[in-house]
Amino acid sequence: MGRTLLRVLGFFLISTVFYGRAQELKVKPNLTADSYIIPAGGSVTLNCSVKDPADLQYELWRLTSSGDQFIKYNYIDGVFNVSEGGKYSCRGFISGTNSVTSKSDAVIINQTVSIKPTVILQPSWAQIYSGETVSLRCWIQGGDGWRFDWFRDGSAYSAAQPRGNNEAITVSQGGLYHCRGGRGGGRGEPGFYTEDSNEVPIEKTLSIKATVILQPSWAQIFRGETVTARCEIQGGGGTQWEYEWSPARLNIPPTSSELRISRVTDSEKYSCRGRKDQFHFTQWSDVITVTVSSSKPRATLRAPRTTIPAGGSVALSCSVDGSDGWRFDWFRDGSAYSAAQPGGNNEAITVSQGGLYHCRGGRGGGRGGGGRGEPGFYTDVSRKVTIKETLSIKPTVILQPSWPQIYSGETVTARCEIQGGGGTQWEYEWSPARLNIPPTSSELRVTDSGEYSCRGRKDQFHFTQWSDVITVTVSSEPRPVLTVSPSWLSPGASVTLSCQVEHPSAGWRFYWYKAAPDRSKRSFSYELLPESNNRTEHDSYIIHGQTHTAGYVCRAGRGDSVYYTYYSHPEFVWSADLHPAASLTVSPDRVQHFRDDPVSLNCEGNSTEWRVMMIKKTRDLSYCSESYWGTMDGSSCNIKHLWSDNAVFWCESGSGEFSNAVNITLQSNDGVILVSPVHPVAEGDSLVVRMGHTLLSELKFFLLCTLLCNGRAQDAVLTVQPNPMTFYIGESVTFTCDIKGGEYTDWNYILLKDGQAITSYYSNKHYTLILYYTSYSGNFHCCGLGLSTKCSKTVSISVSADKPKARLTAGTTTIPVGGSVTLSCSVESSEGWKYEWFRRTSDTSEVRINNEQNSVIRVSQGGIYRCRGLRGEPAVYTHMSDESSVFITLSNPVVATRQPSWPRLFSGETITLTCEVQGGEAAEWAYTWIRSQRTVVAYDKNWTFKASYTSSGDYTCWCRRRDDWYSSTKTSEAVTLSVSPEPRPVLTVSPSWLSPGASVTLSCQVEHPSAGWRFYWYKAVPDRPEKSYSYELLPESNNRTEHDSYIIHGQTHTAGYVCGAGRVDREYYTDYSKPKFVWSGDSRAAASLTVRPDRVQHFRLDSVSLTCGGNSTEWTVRRFPVGGILSHCSGWGKMNGSTCIVQSLRHTRAVYWCESGSAFSNAVNITAQTGDVILVTPAHPVREGDSVTLGCKLKKKELLSNVFFYKNEKLVQNDTREELIIAPVSESDEGFYKCQYSGKESLQTWMAVNPFRPESSSFLVLLVVGLVCGILMNIFLLLLCLYKQPKGPCFTRSRSSAAEQEEARHNKQPSPLHGDACVYESVRDLENVENDAVSTITDESGDVTYSSIELKTITKRGNKRKPEENTVYSELKLGSSTDLLYAQVLHHKKDTGKSVPAADETIDPDVKPGTALGKSAAMKSDL
After folding, report:
1. Can you give the pLDDT at residue 897?
2. How far apart are CA 959 and CA 925, in angstroms?
3. What pLDDT does 578 receive?
4. Which DSSP category does 255 fall into?
5. CB 768: neighbour CB atoms within 10 A?
6. What share of the chain is helix, strand, coil (3-state, %, to 5)?
7. Is the per-residue pLDDT at 1307 higher than 60?
8. 963 vs 1248 pLDDT, higher one
9. What is the pLDDT of residues 524-566, one digit of tens each?
10. pLDDT, averaged across the chain
């Protein structure tokens, strides 16, 4: 017989037995389903019920087209699980009778097939704007005949057409869309549905545009300042907006409409938008750029003028470049400047007093920042500006002697005289400024041309007016011009000498000399005339009784240390009378001669040595020699050719006597001359005058012209010595005419200038010419006359009246230790110079040095040097060179040091630099500091200043003696300063969650650790009005700690901490660290936090209420999320009294707590789940001995049955119960719990158990009574079940080993599990408790698994067992995966009870909130 036939027959027999005489009860059951669609691979729960169930039991039927099919019985509660789609009905019956109810109305259960549609977005815009639409298409691969349902934000989408397959729809609203397919069914028949498709988010941008407003409106702020960016949205009809900021890192939801900007890393471009819900947004606001500078700004002081005129004022302005909103404080000489207006921003002030001024800006909390009181932030002070005040006193410059015109080499003294001042000890300042080489004096030696003025200095800031300018002109050394009147003596006449200086001025005295021939030098010696020894004040001198030819010279002088001019050129007074001591005769004896006539000039007298002199109308003086115009033969001068038109000749004896003088006039060879005697004719003598000429003279002249003018080849060479080509008045030049070729040597020479002969023929090829006038400039050539005439090319020379100026150069102006420097003197564009050198100091007169007259010298002394050039005989001098200061390097080593010597400084710290001269303790030194090769300051030995970010660099120093401006040391080795922005310590707290008996360790780290830090530890006290914290030093921290860690013992409640650091004895402190917290889950009377709904896990976007309770009326709720940005309720919720209402929970994981004016509440972990299932566990730790109920909740449904519960990843319950009840709770129940339903799992959550500490012996009495009652109740229930066993499979015992049963009886520890009607018991090995092995019992259908919970024996307080080695306290971390919470295990030592890391566990001792452990952040929770 087939199985099918047997089943039909069995069903028939049963029906006959039960319903053969069935009596229908007048009641109709109601069949309901928790879902009408069976998920893929899952089931749904059907519940058959009646109003008055009495003793009814239930059966389930499946209705098909071929007949009703019996499914199963349910003897208890009418709950059935089905995993197959169909049409179901149920009815009730009374066991043991034939009484049945009618069948319920049918319920259609649809089946889900394992097909997942795909939503396709066209166009592929995930974001739309007002007026735009997109199309959504629900696509199923390889299938047709489907119709589609659409859902938006989890609800049916009403825009889908009720008729039609709805494969594609058009949407214009934002939301989260998905679809599913269905087919079959209809007309009351079950059908099939696909799984839900993927979800497609559509964001819609509204037409509203947000605006970002800065308060204060500062686009640039500085470290330590804060501005608030506020997002304002106009319109929206009262919409409760949420806010989103750009950049995206600011969006740790929920974000606030206000954003505080204060950190350097906050320098960004900011914009915002509003969010109406998850999918509707406003437009982004315009971008506002905020710059946060890491270092303080420095105020800039501007002064258009730094000198206050007498009785006037100057304007000063202070600003901070690139930012605004400042008000300014002013300081004069280091003190607050009272003239600044207290009511304004004082950006500009007017000052009428001299002083050292600086300013600073302030804003943020004061008058300039829109607040009250003093500013909260100050800039660094500006550079100091010296303002000089001009007094009404005006000094006078007096020249002594009062000569505005002086000459090279001459000195006058300028004296600055100040009338008034009431006995002030004036210091003096001179203009030009180069004269002010300290210390300056009231007297100034003037040696150079310039405009001079002076003023007095009362102190650094008060000055007299400038004196009127006095102009001093320095000219080249003058040469007087002497004139003699008359030139020819007449009987009885006196001779008047007149001496004129080129630039006449007061103070001259004149000296008169007689020129005595000096034949050995071919020049003259000068003898003071009688009565002229003491000079004359007048520029004329009369000589009486002069009867013979004589020469005279003059010069001028002035000053106490007499300055002399050059000697004048000699001038002569001539007498024609013969003198027996010296006489001149001419042969032929006539005044007029032809040019080519030979002439003999004969000297006679009391001397054997003679020379014949000639002076022409041009005042050129020369003597008879081969170099010039004749040849001396004994006492006669023979002239072959005369070239000068007119000249005066005379003889000079070796004994210094002058002969009579004669006039000789030349006539061209073709002319006519008058023959008349040279000497005067005595009265009564006869005189013959005749005219004559010769053919020979004419012929010679003709031949000479022919030779000169026919342009024959130049066979003569004219050279000049010296050869600079540029000469100065007073110099002499020698022309040499060399004739090329031939052996003929008897040449006669002539020198021509610009084509005109300037000499007569001379036999010596050398001719020396003294350049008295600039008219000697021109082109010169020479000719030689012998067997033929040969002429040279022209040579150009220039004669200048303006002397050149010497130029002094120095290879270096600093003399090394033990060395010297080279000075060079030169005259540009000319040669042949020798040089004189001069040296002086600021307090010694100038003296000549180094007589060698070299152009290059080496000096080893510091001082002020000058030079000048000279050349020729007589010497001609250049103007003095400019001064050059030379400094000598001393051998004393210099060492620069700094205090403190830390390798890194921070902005705002005080640093002292010291410059030490070794071996120079007895001397007084002046010090100069250089930063990065730039002189920054000249101070004393110690330089103290506050470091700023711009102070970084290499610092060196050098020194000089205060009494010697021209000596200095070497530069010291560099001291390097590295200045960082003001640091902010980072505080870490370990552990983050308190565990019983554990201490709290605070660790304070400075960004740039270096020597010298001491640490300060503070407790953060809530300051509710300011929504911030005030800080109180912790006990024993008043005097700081040297170590960067601090241990707190006995902390039992939530607390906040802050640290700071300071340098030893430097009065420098860092900013406070950000507050960090240690949390406790225990509530206390003073402050407590409760959560509604009371659970750890919530669905994302759920509404949550956080209520504060305790001894305060003012509360705020704080949140510290993963990522570590601390915020208060007003940023993400709304405070209503003592409750913070979070309308939409967005943060995935965060810790929450309450704060009153001085207290912290307990803290709670809250997790926002994005999945479909959450575990329902209480938010607070469970007290040992209490009961606790764990549940599982779906996002869109009520609590479920057939839920799997896990502890530490091990299944502990799987039955029809929708809750896991643990009673009483023991410490071993701590662990990670999660639930599972239909293949979907919740996150794991750590359930903490607080050990119960009995306080009195009454607890022991209650405990004993409770245990006895519990045992009696268990016995009663067991007997009841044994009695009912025949009526249903109610009692089942696990298959335990005999050893296990014996152990259970021995320990007497039953473990009741609470069910609806029966007790299921399982006993497990107590020696295996650490692995939480679960004993299970399964009914024959395999649908239900029951697990045991162990109830530990609680001992008396006096006998309480010490913790086993494997007893653990766990530190909770929100896990790195999306599904798990990880525990850090700490073993407790048997002897001390202190917690130490377990050797076999992986421990992270310092995981901060926000530290990534895997895919997501982790959070500690010490329990």
Report:
1. 93
2. 6
3. 79
4. B
5. 15
6. 5, 45, 45
7. no
8. 1248
9. 888 888 776 668 888 899 998 888 899 999 999 888 778 888 8
10. 78
Where residue 1301 falls among pLDDT bands split at 50, 70, 90?
very low
Secondary element (H or E) of residue 335: strand 335-336
Q: What is the mean pLDDT of residues 243-252?
A: 79
Cis amide linkage into residue 1025, ω under 30° from 0: no
CA proximity to 214, closest of 229, 231, 232: 229
pLDDT at 846: 85
Q: Which pLDDT does position 795 carry in this prediction? A: 93
Structure tokens at 114: 């394992």
1219: three-class secondary structure by DSSP:
strand
Q: How far apart are CA 1423 and CA 1370, in angstroms?
A: 6
What is the largest distance, in Å, between two alpha-carbon atoms of the chain? 214
Residue pLDDT, tens place only, 961-1010: 877 778 888 889 999 988 887 788 999 999 988 887 789 999 999 877 76
Q: What angle do CA 359, 363, 368 make, to 5 degrees?
A: 90
Q: 1195, 1188 in Cβ contact below 8 A?
A: no
Burial class (CB in 10 A: 0-12, 13-18, 19+), 745: exposed
Measured distance CA(1342)–CA(8) in Å, rounded: 25
* DSSP notation for 545-607: S--S-EEEEEEEEETTTTEE-PPPPPEEEB--S-BTTEEEEEES--SEEETT--EEEEEEES-
Contact between 455 and 467 under an 8 Å Cβ cutoff? The reply is yes
Task: Please state, in angstroms and rounded to a whole number, the distance separating the CA atoms of residues 243 and 210.
Answer: 10
Please give the C-alpha separations between residue 1067 and each of 679, 864, 945, 984, in angstroms, as whole numbers: 110, 48, 13, 16
SS3 state at 1042: coil
- Mean pLDDT for 647-652 is 90
Q: Kindly report the number of other CB atoms within 10 A of residue 847's CB atom.
A: 9
Residues 955 and 897: their CA atoms lie apart, in Å, by 10
Matching residue, tokens 């001024």 = 357
The Cα 1117–Cα 1154 span in angstroms is 4
Measured CA to CA, the distance from residue 984 to residue 1079 in angstroms comes to 24
Question: Could you please report the per-residue DSSP string of 740-751?
Answer: PSSS----EEEE
CA angle (844, 848, 850) in 5-degree steps? 125
- Residue bearing tokens 């170099």: 627
Half-sphere exposure of 362 (CA within 13 A, CB side): 18
| Two structure tokens written together for 677 | 């005697």
Instruction: Give me the residue label for tokens 């471009």.
Output: 269
The string of pLDDT tens digits covering residues 92-126 is 888 878 888 888 999 988 888 888 899 988 888 88
The string of pLDDT tens digits covering residues 678-717 is 888 777 766 665 555 443 443 443 344 444 444 444 689 9
User: Cα angle at 347 between 343 and 352, to 5 degrees?
Assistant: 90
Q: Of 1047 and 127, which is predicted with more confidence?
A: 1047
Beta-strand relationship, 300-302 and 307-308: unpaired
Non-local CB neighbours of 428 within 8 Å, separated by 6+ positions: 416, 440, 441, 442, 454, 455, 456, 457
Question: Is-contact 621 615, C-beta < 8 A?
Answer: yes
Contact 1089, 1162 (CB under 8 A): yes
CA nearest neighbour of 1174 among 1241, 1115, 1120: 1241
Sole residue written with tokens 């007095």: 456
Tokens of 583: 């006489």
Place of tokens 């069903």: 11
Which residue in this structure is represented by tokens 């045991």?
A: 1348
**Which residue from 62, 156, 59 is spatially nearest to 109, judged by alpha carbons?**
62
Percent of the chain with pLDDT over 90: 19
| Between 402 and 1187, residue with greater pLDDT | 1187
Q: Any idea how long the chain is?
A: 1423
Q: Could you tell me the pLDDT band of residue 22, with boundaries at 50, 70 and 90?
A: low
Question: Using the 8-state DSSP alphabet, how is residue 1130 labeled?
Answer: G
Tokens of residue 938, six digits: 């000249």
